[in-house]
Design goal:
The complex is a heterodimer of chains A (64) and B (573).
Chain A (H helix, E strand, L loop, with lengths): L23 H6 L2 H25 L8
Chain B lengths: L3 E3 L6 E3 H32 L8 H34 L8 H23 L17 H30 L9 H31 L7 H12 L1 H22 L6 H14 L16 H36 L8 H5 L5 H24 L2 H7 L4 H28 L8 H27 L23 H33 L19 H4 L7 H7 L9 H28 L4
Classes of the chains: A mainly alpha (64), B mainly alpha (573).
Chain lengths: 64, 573
């Protein structure tokens, strides 16, 4: 039985030896720095930069 | 002495520096939990109108101390320990820069002490959010900056560890799922701490009268730190769910692709939940609010729903494969409820999901947020998520860290077995009562809801007094549970019976060790899957399917009730 455990490395299932290439999505997921970059870019673009733009583009309220 | 020791229980090669860093961070986390817990008791006995223990200024001081110690110091120190465990220990690799690890630890401790000094001496009564123009002593902000720099260093160190592990071929294939979850926590931590630097450096300069900080800008950037830091907790908590499932009952991973995709969704979308704190802010436009709280946050909610299924499903399947096939819930009845690691896992999932998760998603809806914002519903939500969810999971894994890393038996093991029950029941009552009180309009962060010294006294329903009383009783039960955890942990770590280096005599009495250590789940064999037989209409995990359908029904009901409550305020047509 080769049910993977959460605490051990995820190996190729029996029969899928080193001959078969690692799927593209798995290689993508296995890139820690790509994940880090995606996290930073998405957050900073959609939350931070857009939010700063919203605030900066507010017109000052006219004083009485 | 070799740089590594072989764990006699798991067979893992543990770098001794990783051992020491995990222990150091875990010990400081527990001290912070104690400080935050004492403040919790004082705050609780003040919010309980019948007692009203503290005067107003001391109430806000204790609330600040409680928030900073629990939400920042306890949880982040513990997460640093988790990062080292999930990388160096699970990957069987070395710490590449031990001195960096210790410098980062010292920075975090120094920052913590600076912040504690400013808070306890009354120089920082600014609450966890420290909103400008509330001004604290400059050392408060500098302390937070030093803490954040230290934490960011540990995050960088974590990425270095997994890079070195891959280069030195310490593991084959993809990262274990638990490590992958820790990786997502680290990625979110990087974003969180960068936001912290962006806002706390100008605020530190503002506290020295060297520059101006706009209040709305502060709120925007601060919540990029404030809520994102809670998302680190979610990712770390889910990783620990998978780990506890594996340790306690031999849970399996149903589908690596699905679980990892859910973690990736956390990385991409979860930080945008920060925007729901700004839903009532006039400075942010509706399209920003809708995009960041609706479209983006629901993708992160989808991720939580996925883990909310895969973790219990993996537990159920792991147990069914080992023979627990009676009916829908035979596996649940046979589960090791006397193992404090397992009971913590179960309660963490249930209370986090049913109370914390459902309320949080609902508040992220702009219209419903109008009736929830700044009421006790908000702390009701986050006590269910951060305390009953994350802290409870951390408590559960501690009962395995003590024997595996500290190599000690658990002291007062009978107390340790009931601790998760006390804590979970107390927190469930506490957070649900808070939510009810908030529904009646009771404000959060408020010293005296009787408004006895105010020009007017808004009338709350008489039911509020009863609900607050129930909240207080629940809180006191939870505090007892938390106190037991601290006593058990401290006594175990410093005075607990040492385990033999080769695990000889393990299980001789089994009194001070959880069953996952003394009698670990047996390895699965190919014939186990064949013995399981064909699945029924609900699939291979029918018990979990029923549980998630119950959860879905609760979610729909809660949403419906909230829209109904809103309709009482906003008449249409």
């Amino acid at each position: 039985m080769s049910e993977p455990s959460p605490a051990s490395s995820s190996q190729a299932p029996p029969g899928r030896g080193g001959d078969l290439p690692v799927p593209r999505m798995q290689r993508l997921y296995d890139s820690p720095f790509l994940l880090l970059a995606a996290c930073i870019v998405v957050m900073f673009v959609f939350f931070t930069a857009w939010g700063v733009f919203e605030i900066m583009s507010l017109e000052p309220a006219p004083l009485p | 002495m070799s740089a590594f020791r072989t764990c006699p229980t798991t067979g893992l090669q543990v770098h001794r520096t990783a051992d020491q860093l995990i222990k150091a961070n875990a010990v400081v986390a527990t001290v912070a939990l104690l400080v935050g817990g004492i403040a919790a008791l004082l705050v609780l006995l003040t919010r309980w109108e019948a007692v009203l223990l503290l005067e107003a200024d001391m109430f806000y001081r204790m609330l600040t101390i409680h928030g900073m110690n629990m939400l920042i110091f306890f949880i982040i120190f513990f997460e640093m320990a988790v990062l080292y465990f999930a990388s160096a220990v699970l990957l069987n690799c070395r710490i590449p820069a031990p001195k960096t690890g210790w410098v980062a630890f010292v920075l975090m401790v120094v920052g913590t002490l600076m912040v504690e000094w400013t808070m306890w001496t009354g120089r920082a009564d600014v609450l966890f959010t420290s909103y400008v123009p509330l001004r604290a002593h400059p050392l408060f902000y500098l302390g937070v900056i030093l803490f954040a720099v230290g934490a960011l260093t540990v995050v960088g160190h974590f990425f270095a560890i997994i890079t070195v592990a891959r280069k030195e071929k310490a593991y084959e294939g993809s990262l274990p799922l638990v490590t992958y979850g820790a990786l997502t926590a680290a990625a979110i931590a990087a974003v969180t701490l960068l936001h912290g630097a962006i806002i706390y450096i100008p605020t530190f300069l503002w506290s020295l009268d060297l520059m101006h900080v706009d209040a709305q800008m502060y709120r925007l950037i601060w919540w990029g730190l404030g809520h994102s830091s809670q998302q680190i907790n979610v990712a770390a908590m889910v990783s620990i769910w998978y780990l506890l499932g594996a340790l306690t009952v031999g849970s399996v991973v149903l589908n690596e692709k699905v679980s990892r995709t859910a973690f990736v969704l956390y990385v991409l979308f979860i930080s945008m939940a920060s925007a729901h704190h700004l839903l009532v802010d006039p400075g942010m436009g509706p399209s920003w609010k809708v995009w960041n709280t609706s479209y983006f946050m629901y993708m992160a909610v989808l991720a939580s729903m996925i883990h909310g299924f895969t973790v219990p499903a993996g537990t159920e399947l792991g147990m069914r494969l080992r023979g627990a096939t009676q009916g829908l819930f035979g596996w649940l009845k046979r589960a090791p409820w006397g193992d404090p690691g397992f009971s913590s896992l179960a309660f963490s999932i249930v209370v986090f999901g049913f109370v914390g998760g459902i309320t949080g998603v609902t508040f992220g809806t702009e219209q419903i947020n109008i009736i929830a914002h700044n009421t006790l519903r908000i702390p009701g939500h986050f006590h269910a998520t951060v305390v009953s969810g994350t802290a409870m999971a951390f408590m559960g894994i501690t009962y395995y860290v003590i024997p595996l890393i500290f190599r000690r038996e658990i002291a007062f093991y009978r107390l340790a077995k009931i601790q998760p029950y006390l804590f979970a029941i107390g927190m469930l009552i506490f957070s649900m009562a808070m939510t009810f009180a908030g529904t009646f309009g009771v404000p959060r962060r408020h010293w005296d809801i009787g408004f006895n010294q105010a020009l007017f006294q808004p009338e709350f329903s008489p039911a509020v007094n009863l609900i607050i009383g129930v909240m207080a009783v629940g809180g006191l039960i939870a505090i007892v549970g938390g106190a037991i955890y601290i006593v058990v942990t401290v006594v175990s770590v410093f005075f607990g019976k040492k385990m033999a280096a080769d695990d000889s005599g393990l299980g001789a009495t089994g009194r001070g060790l959880p069953p996952g250590i003394t009698n670990p789940p047996r390895p699965l064999k190919p014939e186990d899957k064949e013995a399981l037989g064909p699945s029924g209409r609900l699939g291979p995990v029918p018990g979990t399917m029923v549980l998630v359908l119950i959860f879905l029904a609760a979610f729909i009901m809660y949403y419906f009730v909230n829209w109904m409550l809103l309709s009482f305020l906003w008449e249409v047509g």
